[in-house]
Amino acid sequence: MRSQLLRRGVRTAAVATLTFATAVGGASGATAQRHGASPIDVTVNASGIKAPHHHEGGRVAFRVSTDAKDGRQLQVVRPHKGVPISRVLRDLADAVSHTPSKAAAGMRAFEADAEAVGGAFVTRKVNEEFITSIPAGTVYLIDFTAFLDRPTKPVVKSLKLYGSHGGHHKALTRSPHSTVTFRDTDAGPRFRTEGLVTSHKPILIRNASTEIHEAQIQRVTAGTTDRGLRAYFDAMAQNKKAKSPFTGQPVGFGGISPGHTALLRIHGLKPGTYALTCWVPDEHSGLPHVFMGMYKIVHLR
Predict the structure, then answer these.
(1) Domain extents in the chain
(2) pLDDT under 50 in the chain at which residues?
């Protein structure tokens, strides 16, 4: 949820601590329709967020696009009953702090006050659609790219969900597709992938972990391996210079809370070698989960 900021400065602070841290625009919405959800079109750019004010709840489909040159990250949050969005935004501001201890406290506060119900990293050429289960109530769409630049000036749009269309999120698992599961291990949080060999088919996202995670997908140079990524992040942890294997802009899925499931479809992603990464701060150390080993090379055709 804070990837660009980490790449431009917060990463350096985290590392220092670690050392002693479809085309949616032209898509038919067929994925959403197959699962009984009427899609919500969301456009995020420098002028703000364009989306409806209300929509039916239950199985909710978001189709996200941008015309921003550097891409955009949309994050959807649902405050717990009685919690104002202003408090949730303060939690998130702490979570993207340069100080790991403050970031950890911010993540714990956010998890106590709200749920992350999904999001999308999109570019001019890559648009996305995701479907998830959200009951009736108000959710908030956050331009997280703008938030990372200016947490005190958040760009937020409320979306009121009414009624309940469709059933439980388990209905999303009925169709064959690949899966990306967030899970806890003795070595730290990890990705588990099954059948993730193409960029064109729906991907089931499951958070079986105890913390919020995301699944950024960013192209890396040909020949990059998991071991190569480890060497890169180890060098960063030691505050050493290292050539980045990452190229292009990140796409993929935004933050989602434990126990939640979503169906993601990415449109316009070219075949190649990519890295799955999670840059969400850990609720205990405040360091990005990627520094704890939450990364994985995938080859998409």
Answers:
(1) 3-167+175-300
(2) 3-36, 167-169, 176
